Amino acid sequence: MMYFMLFLGLCFVLGGLAVASNPSPYYGVVGLVLSSVVGCGWLISLGLSFVSLVLFMVYLGGMLVVFVYSVSLAADPFPETWGDWRVIGYGLGFV
Q: Which ranges constitute the DSSP H helices of the chain?
């Protein structure tokens, strides 16, 4: 159980790093959803399944609204991906 909690914590931090280091909203939302799912999984492992479900529903609704709004403002024909050197530099800078 301890290894599972450590794995969830590591995935949560990596999801937050993916959100913070990526300038493109298309790929940043993937990190946001990953962090949300892992955080809810962490709550389920603690025995708080109803709180986890409510948080996931609220976060999912909020994330979709913010994602649609930011995508409509940032009409990028070639968004930066996680393999670009700028994004890797951002990630290393945050670490």
A: 2-21, 25-45, 49-73, 85-94
What's the rounded Cα separation, in Å, for the pair 32 and 63? 8
Give me the phi and psi of 6, to 5 degrees please.
-65, -40
Cα dihedral 7, 8, 10, 13 in deg (nearest 10): 170
Tens of pLDDT, residues 27-86? 777 788 888 888 888 888 888 889 888 888 887 788 778 777 777 777 666 666 667 777
Reading phi first (left if > 0) and then psi (alpha if -120 to 50, else beta), residue 77 is in: alpha
CB atoms within 10 A of CB 75: 7
Is the pTM higher than 0.85? The answer reads no
Q: Give the number of other CB atoms < 10 A from CB of residue 71.
A: 15
* Rg of the chain on CA atoms, in Å: 15
